[in-house]
Amino acid sequence: MASGSNPAVQSAPLSNDDIGLERRLELFRLQVEIRDCEKRAHDLFFQNLIKGTSHLSIGQEAIAAGFGVAMQKGDKSFCTYRGHAHTLARGASMEGLLGELMLRDVGLMRGKGGSMHLTSVEHDVYGSYAIIGAHLPIACGSAWRAQYLGEKDVSVVFFGDGTTNIGAFHEALNFAAVWKLPVIFVCENNLYMEYTPIGDVTAVKHPAADRAASYGLERILVDGNDADVVYRTAQVAIEKARRCEGPSLIECLTYRHSGHSRADPGKYRPPGELEEWLKRDPVIIYRQRLKDFGVTDDTITGIETESKRKVDAATATAKASPPAPVEILTTDVYADGGWAWRN
Amino acid sequence: MSDTVLMPQLGETVTEGKILAWFKSVGDEIKEGDNLFEVETDKVTIEIQAVVSGRLNEIRVSAGDVAKVGAIVAVIGGESPAKAAPQPEAEQAAAPKAAPWRNPFEEVSTPKERYGPAKGPGDIRITPLARRLIAQNNVDILRLAAEVKQRGGSRVDERVVRSAMATSPPTSAHAPAPDAPRYASPPAPLSGQTITLNAVRLKTADRLAENWRTIPHVFQAIEVDFTAIDRVRRKCKRAFQEAHGFSLTYLPFIARATCLAILAFPQVNARFDGKSLSLSPTVNLGVAVDLSHNGLVVPVVRSAEDLTVAGLAKAMRRLIDKARTGKLGPDDLSGGTYSISNNGAFGTTFTAPIINAPQVAILSSDAIKLKPAIVSTAEGDFVVPRMIGVVGQSFDHRAFDGAYSAAFLSALKRILEERNWGDELAENS
Amino acid sequence: MGVAELSYRDAVIRGIAQEMDRDNRVVFLGEDIGKAGGVFKSTVGLYEKFGPLRVRDTPISEQAILGAAMGAAMTGLRPIAEIMFSDFLAVCFDYVANEMSKLHYMTNGQLSCPVVIRTGNGGGARFGAQHSQSVENWTMMIPGVKVVAPSSPVDVIGLMAAAVRDPDPVVFHEHKSLYATKGEVPDGVIVDTLGTAKILRAGGDCTIVALALMVPRALEAAATLASEHGIDAEVIDVRSLVPLDTQTILGSVSKTGRLFTVEENPRLCGWGAEIASIVADEIFWDLDGPIVRITTPHIPLPAADHLEDLALPSAARIVDKVRRVLKA
């Protein structure tokens, strides 16, 4: 991590930095781009260009970015319907994402899946899943495949605090622990299960971390709004899995700035709570972090400007894209591309 | 018609084959039996021959490519069948993509044919298969229904129809021939063959049955003395033929008289909808035309009340020609308000025709021939030969009753017998 | 080419082994399938032959079993997952109804799910209402899955092979009461084709369509109908509900004019209702009488043997119904 020769850095405070400038810039870029793209999605929804439903991750960017940078090509991610951030963090294009939200032909799945099912195998995004908890066992299966074939990739599965109370969560954790699978379970605890405070419906205070012991796993509870913390935690878990030492369960504390979905303004939150958390906005935290590590304002602004430009370009592309041709109504029900249930 | 060449079944467990080579190119003329292509499976390599002749219009699976058993690999002859809808770009080229299959809203194909009602005369039930066989073989459903009821049954199924077909020939439709007799050919010996209804018969069969079933028909007839008309006809015959190219029959006179009679009895020229009678302001006269024993159509002369005898003759002639050459359009067949069925060609005495709903009546005329009639004079009553024909009317008894119909027929008779037809024809030929 | 007599349950073992021999990506997971050889002894020997990495015993976690099978399939393996009793499909039905079946479509073809879910289906074993159901129709009605239910040992092997080789999720309904039955099986590799029905007995008076346990009963009924009542029935083993071999069924009913289905499922929305509706539509004009479905009544199944036997369609009940309807 050279310092003096890099024009991005004005002084040299970067000694002892395990993360390094390049990765820090990447962490920041991802968070900023996710933030900008999600905000654009929010606006497009209110312009009725995004139809159906949309679950935004504004305020939770650090988790997606931290893991996104820690994962390597070939590591497979599985997320929920709140998956825009995770899809972008693995490198999927913004126009593919916005296009899919707008249900156009340029979308990642040409509009056939929609916001809740974002998938880009090219970027190792192995699906976004709308049924709570369903993808946890699926991630275990991917990990089992790696273990069986001796492949070195890990499977990372993201889910919310509410998921920790559904049956599939418990089955998956037990399964992964017993079979010692290379899977990492990441709980994004944003304190609310849909419209209900998670504490009202969970028997333990920390819905994931406090259950790890039930599965013989280590209790891991971290600040989900600090991308560095998330990155380091991810690294440790991923390395452990790659060494065939089994699964990890990580609870990241965070907060979502907008409502659960769509036009939910989140009025069920106690007054002052949002404001408190806004002070811990991950993007603000990380901008300051970059400055602490000597990154110039120009570099930071450059990233932010470029992000907005990308979002605008992607929006234009997505808007210009037509809806998919109607022929695809019946394609790809089966792997041969067709849908024939009879002869 | 084009024929599709399919990847053939090459073995019980073989699901696909690879085409190694094509022996013909697009554009080649193929004869049945020619080697078309060579295909390889994991079990065998084999040459496939054409089973039809024609021009090889299209090769859909090229040499080197794999196709599933049953897939279309080429098209021979005629127009190519509609190409598969364009496929979206394949994200992964791994497995051969399936061709678009059915219309998503036609996963199950409903048959387009209709074969007659499920309930027959006397409320007997007819199975779908029996209905089809009855229609396709022109089986006399009335007779069949009677037989079934007589046996105490209430259902006609395949067995009943087939045994009826075996014991009696198919009946002809209620089709009158308005013109000179035209025998298609000398009658064939009994052959027991199955005669499938042609398209016209099929279309009219249902309608006839429905009309018969739903309208309470009453038939009345009256004898008419056509002697005066006959005299006029014979006088004008040659001139008319020269002027118009066809001969003048009784039918235009009857048609003219009918229009005139309708003026006094408008209820026969009406629509009945179950509750009320809508009198028509015009006479659109349907004329039943027999298509050489191959079906019956009733083309319509519009606003017939405005036409003279000659005009009617010409209009009807045009329609009959069109009918006989299959050139009738939907306008020719719709909008009729009253119909005439002219059956005289075979010498019959009277005919009770079936009403064309939603009309309420239909006129019939049969053979007009010399018959003895009584003429009363001051000197006494004498038997004289006169040209006599029976004119009848089937009418819907819901629309009006016998007295009205009889009065109409009476008026019609008077017009036919007493009108100055000579003047009419002389004025405008 | 030799032929041997094999039991249905041994055919299951042979079918799985045939595919695991052929393709290293075929793996097998389920409850008590490995060391114990399966609760129905339908997987005996596989653990010993292929080892604990390929034949894995799981906790009692139906959702994890199907979810893991799906995840493994999505990423490169060809898993066979056992759901011990088909009634338990209800416990993990999310994976059949929402996940596996819709994956390929929702991802626009990016991901597919070549899983075989084999399950012990059907009644007659006195297991009571929650362990005896015939649920082929539950799986038939989800777009995106394929469904087979073999009735004979040779079909078990051939359809298992076809199912494993198929790139789509296939639910393979084995019948618990057929495990002990025997049939002739040729030597060597056997591979059948999904989506094909078989005419097991040709006839001209009526068509009887049956599935799984109902197939031998339909054949028995047809023999009685012929010898005692002069009725010559054509018997079709549907074998595959999705894809459905409508051409064979329609061809047969076009010829005979009469259709009967024999279904072990309770009446409402049984698989025969779908076939009846297709026939009544496409070949309406070939029907010479009403289509009649012979089914278990619409009740939960009792445990008591005499009651269960009464409920499921028997050969005698089939004979009686066909005879009465045709002679009416």
| Shape field of chain C | globular
| Major β-sheet annotation of chain C | 7 strands, mixed
Q: Could you name the CATH class of chain A?
A: Alpha Beta
Main pleated sheet of chain A: 6 strands, parallel
Number of E-type strands of chain A:
8
In CATH terms, what is the architecture of the largest domain in chain C? 3-Layer(aba) Sandwich
Stretches of chain A where pLDDT is under 50 for at least 5 consecutive residues are 1-5, 9-13
Oligomer state equals heterotrimer
The N- to C-terminal Cα distance of chain A equals: 64 Å
Give the count of helical stretches of chain C.
11
Assign an overall shape of chain A: globular
Strand arrangement, major sheet of chain C: 3-2-4-5-7-6-12
Strand proportion of chain A: 5-15%
| CATH fold-level assignment of chain A | Rossmann fold
The portion of residues forming beta strands of chain C comes to: 15-25%
Counted up, domains of chain C total 2
Q: What is the gyration radius of chain A calculated from CA atoms?
A: 20 Å
The number of helical elements of chain A comes to: 10
From the alpha-carbon coordinates, what is the Rg of chain C to the nearest angstrom? 19 Å
What is the strand and helix layout of this fold?
The complex is a heterotrimer of chains A (343), B (429) and C (328).
Chain A: H1 21-46, H2 61-70, E1 76-80, H3 84-89, H4 94-101, E2 125-129, H5 135-149, E3 155-160, H6 167-179, E4 183-189, E5 192-193, E6 196-197, E7 220-223, H7 227-242, E8 248-253, H8 273-278, H9 282-292, H10 297-320
Parallel strand pairs in A: 1-2, 1-3, 3-4, 4-8, 7-8
Antiparallel strand pairs in A: 5-6
Chain B: E1 3-6, E2 16-22, E3 29-30, E4 35-40, E5 45-49, E6 54-59, E7 66-68, E8 72-76, E9 125-126, H1 128-136, H2 141-150, E10 155-156, H3 158-167, H4 199-214, E11 217-225, H5 227-244, H6 251-264, E12 270-272, E13 277-279, E14 285-287, E15 289-290, E16 296-297, E17 300-301, H7 309-324, H8 330-333, E18 338-342, E19 361-377, E20 380-396, H9 402-418, H10 421-427
Parallel strand pairs in B: 9-10, 14-18, 18-19
Antiparallel strand pairs in B: 1-8, 2-4, 2-7, 3-6, 4-5, 6-8, 11-20, 12-13, 14-17, 15-16, 19-20
Chain C: E1 3-7, H1 8-22, E2 26-30, H2 46-50, E3 55-57, H3 62-74, E4 78-85, H4 93-106, E5 116-121, H5 136-140, E6 146-148, H6 153-165, E7 170-175, E8 182-186, E9 198-201, E10 206-210, H7 214-229, E11 233-237, E12 240-242, H8 246-256, E13 259-266, H9 271-282, E14 292-296, H10 305-311, H11 315-327
Parallel strand pairs in C: 2-3, 2-4, 4-5, 5-7, 6-7, 10-11, 10-13, 13-14
Antiparallel strand pairs in C: 1-8, 6-12, 9-11
Helix pairs in contact in C: 1-6, 3-4, 7-11, 8-9
